[in-house]
Amino acid sequence: MIRKAFKMRVYPNETEEYFKRHNPIWKSLEDTLRKNGVKNYSIFLDEETNILFGYAEIESETAWEAISDTDICRKWWDHMADIMDTNSDNSPVSKDLKEVFHLD
């Protein structure tokens, strides 16, 4: 299992909407994540900076990257584009984080 951490940013004054759109997350998106080996997935918010910290345990980078090629993922990106930093294809601007410590 690979531990993956990344950060994104939600726009100021859009954190409540961000929470609403994730609770609950679309069932078809959840199914796609699970089908592609994603487990133990959490997103946290730093309310001072509007930085989102994502953590997921994944089976492989290839399976993780394949999620972005699904229709449901692209629909989700379109749905979220108005409330967070995105790239030209509406994917979230995301920065992978390097693990420096882990304790089981």
TrEMBL record:
This protein's record includes keyword Metal-binding: no
Top EC group: isomerase
Gene Ontology MF terms: L-rhamnose mutarotase activity
Assigned keywords, A-Z: Carbohydrate metabolism, Cytoplasm, Isomerase, Rhamnose metabolism
Coiled coil (UniProt feature): none
Pfam families the UniProt entry points to: rhaM
EC number: 5.1.3.32
HAMAP family: L_rham_rotase
Protein name as it appears in the record: L-rhamnose mutarotase
Species name: Gaetbulibacter aestuarii
